[in-house]
Amino acid sequence: MISNVPSENSSFNAQQPEISFATSNKGNPLIICDNYLFRCNKTTISKKYWICTEKGCSVYIHTNVNKELISISGNHNHSANPDQLEAKILRGKMKERILTETTPITKIYDEEIVKAKLSKAAAVILPTVIEYRSNMSKARRKITPVIPSSVIFDIPESYQQTLSNERFLLVDLFMTRGKDRILVFSSDQQLELLFESETI
Q: Would you call 161 exposed, middle or buried from its count of C-beta atoms within 10 A (0-12, 13-18, 19+)?
């Protein structure tokens, strides 16, 4: 997710560019400024210090704790690459959805591609859906609970509720002295649809 944040005073804001915030593939915060990318290098009680992600570039950005721009120092020793940045931001959006949703990876890929309206250069940089699905399937499996070998296991809270925080696990019942277990999953809307259906 990207958000635009103005500086903490109007006179400074008139001279300095707006900054946007994004998230890295590892979930760390990033700043985008003039098509350059910055990562958080140091945090104090009142300030955050951000450094250009390009190795060897010493440009810094200072923000306050409210993510408002305070100052920019230094000159970049490399050119900006807006197309590569555009592709990187899109990959971050895709990964965030893949790790928080159960939507098929190929569907997420297609939906985000349509919404992004990438430039031709950025589209060339972006991995194909087959390449991306292979990498992201591994990432999704790491956070997905393994298939249990016993009926005795805990069900994570995220599997007991819908994305709207409504109940989804309706029945959790042990049978025959713990040898069998009955689990019933459904949302209230699905139950209503079932009860109203003439044919089952």
A: middle
